[in-house]
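Thread: Newbie trying to understand structure tokens

Hi all, I'm a second-year student working on a class project, and my supervisor (Dr. K.) asked me to get a predicted structure for one chain before our next meeting. I've only ever worked with sequences, so writing a 3D structure as a token string is new to me. If someone could post the tokens and maybe explain what I'm looking at, I'd be very grateful. Here's the chain:
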Amino acid sequence: MNYDHDHHDVIGKLPGVFTWGEWQKYKQEKKGKQKMDSIDPKHYHLKIQPWDFVRANNLGFAEGNVIKYICRWKQKGGVEDLQKAKQYIQMLIDNDLEEYG
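---
Reply by user tm_fold:
Sure, no problem. This is what the structure looks like when written as tokens:
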């Protein structure tokens, strides 16, 4: 008895269960969708993308993160994103005070 072969044949006949080939295809499609979602996430559907704004205005790392978290807080991270933005703003303030007194 070839267990693997028999096993896959049985699985394919169960309602709502993938065959091995269907499962592999599903995983590939899901992986492609996840990759696309990470490139174009739903929480950045804005008129001007944060990355484009940061680059166009030659902003640094901390400023860019402030923009990112402020732009997405309602659609993604909620108050936690506002706290992250606040942390980067405080970092900018502290750096400015050190540099310019």
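A couple of things are worth pointing out once you decode it. The chain has five helices and no strands. Residues 1-40 form one domain. Feel free to ask follow-ups in this thread.
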